Amino acid sequence: MRKLFKKYLPSHESIRQNRFVNFFGTLLYHHNLWHLHRRSVAGGVAAGLFAGLIPGSNPVQFFFATLFSVIFKVNLPIAAFVTLYSNPFTIVPLYLAAYTLGGWVTGGTRNSGSLPPLELGLLDKNLSEWIPVLTDYLVTFGKPLITGLFLLASLLSITGYFTVRILWRYYVVHAWHKRAKRHHPDK
Q: Structural domain tally of the chain?
């Protein structure tokens, strides 16, 4: 399993030289940021899943994945790689799921029907006409979306962490049994 990870993950130096994470300086030298063991990889997956839903582009998400990795001393390359699950193809369904979850928790989707439809032509009008409409949209949709993003990121992180721990443990136990059969074929 480690060979597979090492084959596809970026090197220590390439990450340390990245302009978005190099200001962490000597904090990037902690051994758990680079070692591939069950706790560190599971933590890296959790950090990457959480950072992947932080609004912004990949450099913002890479920065937060690095920050979480440094704080929690988990595998940095795994965390940075996992953030890529939120991409142009998946971001709309993820944000819709987050908004739905946030609306369910906050009750924020009930009064969304009372807002006037946001039209593209509105931006051509006077600034004083479209700022109140945009503000109403942000107030109505913002709270459920932000709440939902936090909850969905937390759920994904927890699920990813325990899934990796369980799968890693299963792989190790399976390898032990396979090795035992190879060394003791009569059992």
A: 1
